[in-house]
Amino acid sequence: MPPPSITDGIRSRMVEAMMEIIAEHPTVKTRRDFASAIGTTAAQVSKWQSGVATPTHEDIYNTCTLFFRSVEWIYFGREEKLDLYDIAKRLGELERKFEGKKR
Asked: Which of 19, 22, 23, 77 is 20 to 30 A from 33, alpha carbon to alpha carbon?
């Protein structure tokens, strides 16, 4: 069996983050609630869980922004201790990248 791909890791960490959010968040209690919060559909999230699709960069950005998850952990599987300045700076960089792709 081949080793897991980078997208497999991203997908599994997003599903793990979603499950943690559903378990801990006061208003996000279902996969549908989570999907709605990040701007996607429950059907798309189901595809992540079954391994058919991978979350988009926008899905990841929204999850990290709205639910204070680590971008480094979602993408690379490593956790960093970041202060609020570092988080704001990195999210600003991601936002600029997304804006450039929308044009």
From this structure: 77
Domain count, the chain: 1
- Full-model pTM: 0.72
User: At 91, which amino acid appears?
Assistant: L
- Give the span between the Cα atoms of 18 and 80, in whole angstroms: 19
pLDDT digits (tens, 9 = 90+) for 33-58: 999 999 999 999 999 999 999 999 99
Band (pLDDT 50/70/90 cuts) for residue 83 is low
